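hi!! sorry for the late reply, been swamped w classes. u asked for the two structures so here they r. pasted raw, havent cleaned anything up. first the sequence of the first protein and right below it the tokens
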Amino acid sequence: RQDFGDGRLECISYRTGAGFYLEQARAPPISGQGNRIFSGEGPLRINFRDPSHREYRRGTSHCKGRVYMQVDGEFFCVHEPRSVVLKHHATIRVLVKSDEVQSCC
């Protein structure tokens, strides 16, 4: 179960931008387009192959060198990245809807 207050970084990659949007539809059989690449406290450093490397080109030729990812629910598209560092920068407080019904009278 996802918990936005657990202090863990969740990182998911997608082959295409369309894969991300299909994932958001959450309708079988098109859901499940993402690949979890990390779930932990971090920090995490991801080093990519050089964009001129044969394997990098083979893996990203369909999307012209772009890499699609989601980190803690935020979508990112990066072009020919060399490395990415994921870490918590700050903690903020948010309002959450309570399932409990509160009565004032």
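now the second protein. again sequence first, tokens right under
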Amino acid sequence: AALYCTPCEKVPGELSLRHNSIDFEPRTDAEALGRYRAEEYRIHLEVRDLLECGAVAMPIEGLASAAQFGSSTVAFFLQLHVRTLDGCRFLSRDELAAKPWRGLLRLETRGALYEA
């Protein structure tokens, strides 16, 4: 399980890692569908379009949503820097250097983060 963290939503779903791609499939149950349209948050990222990947652990003690997903004291994130969002438009070298496109996924455990 994972949360796809966007500036306006935290979308629950399943993260799948393959040798040539990273996929995120949003939950489509009634509770989740009330907040977003699943197809808008579906991810299929080919590994060749991944520029950089970082594992981030952040303390979250005291936040009301801390116990909602995984650990109650630490949040585990997988941050992805990518050169394309749709396979059609690619960032130039200058654009990549200035501000690459990013994706942020919150994982339940440190083990899931290291596996990713």
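hope this helps!! also noticed smth abt the second:
The radius of gyration is 15 Å.
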